[in-house]
Specification:
Helices cover 85% and strands 0% of the residues. It is mainly α and 220 residues long.
Length: 220
């Protein structure tokens, strides 16, 4: 068991979590590029390369997650609010997993040449842009936790409004998809991608709730 103070344990753990978070946002940037290529209708080997890069990034994130678990085992009871930290770690890891699952489905759609109609493509662009904005806000919340917990609380509160925008966009895209003239197979796969993008927003909101609890502990 490693001997350390509660504050030192929290700082070290947060450093590891931010390293994991960097993999998450790196992965999402790769997904944005991948989806941009797909929605433009380009048959590009870059799509497959990006899917492989996202898978590699996810593996690297999992390696950091194992380091986090190892550190948690070593510091033991020295870490305060252990359950809150664990929820944060698990939620961040779920986001990383979902990004990989979306990438996998996009690569299938591209390989089968199952492309959306222009209206559906526009809907996906709007949904992806909103999800990107929400994840960027979550990133800021995480990276201010150590230095400015009150700002983290503000950012976590703002996530709820962003999630409502995403819900509305998701519903509109779902309707547009149903009315689109694509094959049944393409419709099913595009629907899965749409649902998983919306789930990213739900996970971001849940992660924000975990961050809010930790920030409250740090706010005077």
């Amino acid at each position: 068991m490693e001997s350390t103070s509660p504050e030192a344990a929290a700082y070290r753990l947060l450093d590891l979590i931010m390293e994991h978070g960097k993999k998450l946002w790196e992965s999402f940037k790769q997904l944005e590029e991948m989806m941009s290529l797909y929605l433009s209708g380009k048959m590009n080997k870059k799509i497959k390369e990006l899917a492989e890069a996202i898978k590699t990034t996810e593996r690297e994130g999992n390696e950091i997650k194992l380091q986090i678990y190892d550190y948690l085992a070593r510091v033991g009871e020295a870490l305060m609010y252990r359950e809150d930290w664990m929820r944060l770690i698990l939620n961040l890891d779920s986001i990383l997993d979902y990004i990989d699952s979306i990438s996998f489905r996009l690569s299938i759609a591209a390989s089968k040449k199952w492309y959306p109609t222009p209206e559906v493509a526009e809907g996906f662009k709007n949904l992806l842009s909103l999800v990107a904005s929400m994840l960027e806000k979550l990133k800021s919340a995480l990276f201010t936790l150590q230095s400015n917990a009150p700002r983290t609380l503000e950012l976590c509160n703002e996530l709820e409004e962003k999630e409502r925008e995403i819900d509305e966009c998701h519903r509109e895209l779902g309707l547009t998809l149903l009315e689109s003239n694509v094959s049944t197979s393409a419709l099913m796969l595009l629907h899965e991608i749409c649902e998983r993008l919306e789930t990213l927003a739900d996970l971001a909101l849940r992660t924000g709730d975990s961050l809010r609890l930790l920030a409250m502990h740090r706010t005077p």
